[in-house]
Design goal:
There is one protein chain. This protein has 353 residues and is α/β, with parallel strands linked by helices. The protein contains 12 helices and 12 strands. The strands form 3 sheets. It has a 6-stranded parallel beta sheet, with helices on both faces. Strands 7-6-8-9 form a 4-stranded parallel beta sheet, sandwiched between helices. The protein has a two-stranded antiparallel sheet with strand order 10-12. The chain is elongated. The N and C termini lie far apart (90 Å).
Length: 353
């Protein structure tokens, strides 16, 4: 074979090698591409609260943010956006509309008015965005409208029963509560919003439990303080002006109002031995500290940690399309977490949370 023939043969060999190498590289790159991590997904949770200044809810949402962060994976990030309903259902409706327009995947809604969720439900249904209502339970008929609505909260009757039991135990073990020694406990009530289901049930169940426990009661006054510490201070001051030292027991629907009553007693210069026994519900940080300080006689722990984690896990499961049987939802809709009595024996456990 001549020199030119040999050169041509070598060129053809190089060309064949280059073609084979290109094919191998192509296959290798395709294989690498196939093994690349899947594109990251972003779960966007929109949260609306009836009032961002509510102490219990603020603590709950702080837990919820941390829980959502803990549930993030390499494949799925979670973003939480919180809006304030400002105690106005119209404002809350607008917040939900803004969150939906912003592309949220799951809504968590704490209703301003539990009887008026229609616009929120309609907007969510139209965009197929599931709703987790929390803390304020909508009317059953409203939740029955669609199978992508859920409720996470607690049974208000249970909290009232526990408050009544705590108060009864305290009265039996502290004879000084009945300061006038007439065998009857004169009491006042600080109640949440007018007509609010939880407020009404907490009040009625606490009083009926005390009666069932054999405590003789005389109601002096029942005042609305809208879950608010400052309003409770004002209402308690007014009741003290009217009834003075006759008040032996204060039952408040939540810790903030109980703390407002304690503020009023402190401002009036009422000494510890002359103060009525004050009971709250929620087990907020300040409420628990008041028990440590001896200014509040007792409270009922509202499981904000449990509610927050349940909401976060449920939101993630809905986004991922997972089966919800592990949540043990009542009627496939409701998740109720239990209350717990805070006693001197278990107080430390709650302080550590």
């Amino acid at each position: 074979m001549g020199e030119n023939g040999m050169a041509g043969k070598r060129r053809r060999g190089w060309i064949l090698t280059a073609v084979l190498l290109a094919g191998w590289l192509s296959l290798a790159l395709e294989g690498c591409a196939g093994r690349q991590a899947p594109q990251k997904r972003y779960l966007r949770i929109g949260v609306v609260m009836y009032d961002v200044n509510d102490t219990f809810l603020s603590e709950l949402i702080a837990c919820f943010r941390e829980d959502a962060k803990s549930l993030q994976t390499e494949e799925r990030s979670i973003n939480v956006t919180v809006r304030d309903g400002e105690k106005s259902q119209r404002t809350e409706d607008s917040c939900v509309e803004e969150l939906i327009d912003g592309g949220c995947d799951v809504l968590c809604v704490n209703l301003v008015d539990r009887t008026a969720p229609s616009r929120i439900i309609d907007m969510a249904m139209e965009r197929d965005i599931p709703i987790i209502f929390f803390n304020r339970e909508p009317v059953k008929e409203d939740l029955a409208q669609w199978d992508r609505m859920y409720y996470v909260g607690s049974d208000p009757e249970e909290s009232g029963v526990m408050q009544g039991e705590l108060a009864a135990d305290y009265i039996r073990s502290h004879s000084g509560v009945d300061r006038n020694k007439d065998g009857v406990i004169q009491y006042v009530l600080l109640e949440g919003e007018p007509g609010h289901q939880d407020a009404i049930i907490r009040t009625e169940s606490a009083v009926s439990t005390l009666t069932r426990e054999g405590v003789q009661l005389e109601k002096l006054s029942r005042q609305i303080a809208n879950w608010n510490r400052a309003q409770a201070l004002t209402k308690m001051s007014q009741m003290m002006t009217q009834y003075g030292s006759r008040i032996e027991l204060v039952l408040a629907n939540n810790d903030d109002m109980a703390l407002g009553a304690i503020d009023a007693l402190r401002q009036a210069g009422i000494t510890e031995g002359s103060r009525p026994a004050v009971f709250g519900i929620d087990g907020t940080k300040e409420g628990l500290q008041a028990i440590v300080d001896g200014t509040m006689a007792g409270t009922v722990y509202h499981d904000k940690e449990g509610q927050a984690m349940t909401m976060a896990k449920l939101a993630a499961a809905l986004y991922d399309g997972e089966d919800l049987s592990s949540f043990h939802l009542k009627d496939w809709t409701y998740c109720y977490l239990p209350y717990q009595k805070v006693t001197p024996e278990n107080l430390e456990k709650f302080l550590e949370r």
